[in-house]
Amino acid sequence: MEKRLITAVTLSIIVIVMFQFLFPAPKKTVVVKPEERAIVKEVDVKSFVPAPSIPTENEKESVVTTDRSIVTFSDIGGAVKKLELKQHKKNNSTEPLVLVEEKDPSRYIFSIKDSLGVLPLEFSKYSISTKPDQVIYTLNLKDLQIVKQYTLHNSNYTIELQLFIKNISAQPKELTYQIISGSGVVEPNIADKRLIEVTAKVDGKTVNFKRPKNNIITNPGIVSWVALKTRYFSLIMKPFGQTKQQFHNFAAGEDLVAGIEMDRITIPANSFIEHKYLLYAGPSAASELKKIGMEFEETINYGFFGWIAKALLFMLGLCHSIVKSWGLSIIILSVLLNILLFPLTLKSFQSMQKMHELHPQMEKLKVQFKDNPQKLNKEVMELYKKYKINPLGGCLPLLLQMPIFIALYQALTKSIDLRGASFLWIKDLSMPDAVAIPATLPLIGNHINILPLAMVVLMIFQQKVSTKVMGSAVTEEQKQQQKMMLVIMPIMFGFIFYSMPSGMVLYWVVNTLLTIVEQSAVLKKT
Questions:
Q1: DSSP 8-state class, residue 270
Q2: Residue pair 263/243 in contact by the 8 Å Cβ criterion
Q3: Is 449 exposed, middle or buried (0-12, 13-18, 19+ CB in 10 A)?
């Protein structure tokens, strides 16, 4: 039974880890009216030469700063090439965190491209004008005038775009275009690059991330939003207009690019159409996303046991509001969960004890009915019934605990609250607790993670106590298996947990320590 229990835990942990690798003073807001379109000097489209993919030295940037963001606009394409978050910092730095930094104008945020490839929209140089809280870019072609009117907010992480396309000819014009919603995301941690993904809500259904096989994925339909997400941050765009599809693809260097293609539009002569877009560029925090009121909180996905993860995060936040320490909050949460699950744990201990106490009688039955398997099964079930033993009693409580562990893993590894949070010697609970050492060791380097090593030691001690709890009614073969598990299991778990976020390892260390205490108490009582 012990072997099955340990195997169940090991397989569950391995599945979790592999899943992660495979899938893995406010300013006033200005309301823009159509009649406020900027009037700028026209550009002769006949002499137009498309710009190269990388902007030339005559590119002009405009930097706009709000209370939360630093946004760098480019006159090439009249779009956003860089986004920085002032309230979040780079790792081990006081500088603002760079969320987006793109070099190719065709992939700038809000860059628009003619789907037919006729109009040079993404590489053209736009004229700029400004108003309070607004940046306005204008491009005049032979028959069309393109006006991009951006409104930035201090109260949240959003940027609004009002796109005006005016037909200045005497004939109706048709146009279909794509707009870039996300690209150039910066993820400084190499291990977290596998977590970058694109999700969308199309025709009322959430579309999960798929890696493009032919370098592009399209999801036709009405797009409610499309999100390009890193581990902690998101670029979420909502279109206000009739869409054709959502798409994403990999650019050079495996960088994900996401966007929206709009339905074909017909613009009457001497008239214009207006499309509006809202971009959220900030932390993947439900509290911030709910402020927007556009269902953006649906972009946060904690997996199959998401509702459990949200409940655990609520408990963690409640603890933090009291103790003001995320590390201490994790410890308190571990204690509370252990108390909550103790009846199941105790039942598991008791079931394992009874099973081992009946071992001699089970062996006798095997010898007595070795030629009659049906009779043997019947006698075994009678024995279980007589001593009121549930053969699944040792495994079932553990299996019931696994959803909590999986949900907690998802919650702690994606919670931005732990990013940069320190505790004791741990500088960042979202990262391994790397401690510098004076020498450089093979495979380890010049840093060592203390928590996983402490966990290995505690697990060895836990296994020793566990063998005593289950009694001495075991065969020699089982004793040898126990000795092997005493060495193999802690090493395996240490290897799995060594590079995990220290907040998750802290939880497991506390949980292991509490299990040792509980097993010792059961052993003493027995």
A1: T
A2: yes
A3: buried
- CA pair distance 337, 346, nearest whole angstrom: 14
Which residues are CB-neighbours of 362 under 8 A, at least 6 positions away?
A: 380, 383
Among the listed residues 322, 271, 286, the one whose alpha carbon sits nearest the alpha carbon of residue 168: 271
C-beta atoms surrounding 329 within 10 Å: 25
- Among residues 132, 129, 155, 185, which one has the least CA distance to residue 26? 155
Taking only Cα atoms into account, the Rg of the chain, rounded to an integer number of angstroms, comes to 30
Asked whether the beta carbons of 415 and 300 are under 8 A apart, the reply is no
DSSP conformation class of 298:
G
The span from the CA of 174 to the CA of 106, in Å, is 22
DSSP state letter for 509? H
pLDDT in tens, 338-376: 888 888 777 777 776 777 677 777 777 777 777 777 777
Report which of residues 374 and 298 the model is more confident about. Answer: 298
Confidence category of residue 178, pLDDT binned at 50, 70, 90: very high
The rounded distance, in Å, linking the Cα atoms of 138 and 77 is: 9
- In angstroms, the Cα distances linking 492 to 2, 16, 453, 460, 480 are 17, 14, 12, 12, 18
Assigned token pair, 316 = 């963690």
Indicate the angle between helix axes 2-22 and 326-357, nearest 10 degrees.
140
Q: Which of 318, 352, 392 is nearest to 474 (CA)?
A: 352
State in Å, rounded, how far the first CA of the chain is from the last one: 19
What DSSP assignment string belongs to 1-28?
A: -HHHHHHHHHHHHHHHHHHHHH---PPP
Tell me the one-letter amino acid at 349: F
CA 27-29-35 angle, to 5 degrees, is 140
**CA-to-CA distance for 502 and 422, rounded, in angstroms?**
10
Which stretches of 415-475 are DSSP H helices?
450-469
Block residue for tokens 């928590």: 451
